[in-house]
Amino acid sequence: MTTTAVQTPRGPVTRKDVARYAGVSTAVVSYVVNGGPKNVAPATEAKVRDAIRILGYRPNAAARALKLGSSETIGVVVPDNTNPFFTHLAHAVEEAASELGYGMVLTNSDGSLTRERKNIRTLAARQVDGVFLASCVFDPDVTELEASEIPAVLLNNAGSPPGFSSVGVDLEAGARAAVEHLIGHGHTNIGLAIGTNTGNQLDGREVGWLATLRDAGLPDGPMLHGPFTRPGGYEVGKRFLAMANRPTAIFASNDMQAIGILRAFHEAGVRVPDDMALVSFDGSLDAEYSWPALTTVAQPVQAMAEAAVRALVGKDRGEELQHHILPTELIIRQSCGCK
């Protein structure tokens, strides 16, 4: 018994090669690859998919994009892809976009406005269908977005930027909830560990912390600046410990800072929450698995991602500009003194 060897084409496999091998027209191959617009009999579809597998056919993405008028891809720019909050947010955006048939390209600006602008230009050159920009500043320069003429949504932004939809949270209200909780535990000297931002702009968490202390008739607590990182929090924690009149509680502006602060306290033998209470911001998984587990102001990552995707490529696309400011939630764990 003899078998006939499969004669694979020389060079790149084309749609015509698949059609010839499966014994169908090129139009039928297109229907199978694109999922329509016409239905294909199951047996015929199976033959086409077998041919695709055997020949190693890969559809031309550029040609498909040209035909559909869409690359079926969205771009995301984040300021720090090592930050668990932005990792979680990017993943939620990817999942929400995937349900609508879109792939995602993730870029990292690493806290640099220059790199942020370069990432936007790169995504525009790739002809993505839209961009989610989580800028490294609160009031981003949208010149590159406007020049690219690509639809965009400003992510993790509580402002109302002209020309673009935005999705964010009320930072001030979240900070108020954190500080009010610490005051409820009897603390009167509450410090703030606040992250540094590229534009040195006023952070809503600082505004909320200070306003809550003053509304309660308490003195302004000590405030220390440091990067939104674990090492940044570690250094800030050591500086708090060196104060002559150190606070009895600290509100940290993100979970990574708080974890760094925890390490500094552990090394110094300072017990949390017995000697020093701690509340943070973001609601990342790291906060849940630190020791003690962090009480934190959680941002609604899933809701933020879904609202942003709806505005950019979903049912709200093309509608009037929308500015979603979503509420935060105080997640009570052990670091604040609650048992």
UniProtKB/TrEMBL annotation:
Keywords: DNA-binding, Transcription, Transcription regulation. GO terms for molecular function: DNA-binding transcription factor activity; transcription cis-regulatory region binding. Residues 13-68 form the HTH lacI-type domain. Transmembrane segments: none annotated. It comes from the Bacteria. This is LacI family transcriptional regulator. It comes from Paenarthrobacter nitroguajacolicus (Arthrobacter nitroguajacolicus). The lineage of its organism: Bacteria, Bacillati, Actinomycetota, Actinomycetes, Micrococcales.
